[in-house]
Amino acid sequence: MIYKTHGVCSQEINFDVQDNKLTNVRFIGGCSGNTQGLGRLIEGMDVDEAIKRLDGIHCGPRPTSCPDQLAKALKQYKESLS
């Protein structure tokens, strides 16, 4: 899935889901080290667990962050399955 981000430095998040587990998580743009680290940490994580852990994280004064945007992308992914 490709998700266009809003309100953060990264422009999009690409990921796949297999058996409700995250794979191939890549952020385009943003803080390269942080987004690469995040992608590696959640690789293989259950989608619902990732949403639970990442949803609502802020970046400084911004009301969102790259992790929060990933949670939004995962919620959108789940809605698309319905």
TrEMBL record:
- Domain of life the protein comes from: Bacteria
Keywords assigned: DNA synthesis, Nucleotide-binding
Q: What is its EC number?
A: 1.17.4.1
Q: Name one GO biological process term.
A: DNA biosynthetic process
Is Nucleotide-binding a UniProt keyword of this protein?
Answer: yes
Q: Where is the TSCPD domain?
A: 3-77
Give a yes or no for keyword Protein transport in this entry. no
Q: Which GO terms describe its molecular function?
A: nucleotide binding; ribonucleoside-diphosphate reductase activity, thioredoxin disulfide as acceptor
From the UniProt record, list the reaction(s) this protein catalyses: a 2'-deoxyribonucleoside 5'-diphosphate + [thioredoxin]-disulfide + H2O = a ribonucleoside 5'-diphosphate + [thioredoxin]-dithiol
Similarity comment = Belongs to the ribonucleoside diphosphate reductase class-2 family.
| Protein name stated in the entry | ribonucleoside-diphosphate reductase
From what organism does this protein derive? Hungatella effluvii
- Top-down, what is the taxonomic lineage of the species of origin? Bacteria, Bacillati, Bacillota, Clostridia, Lachnospirales
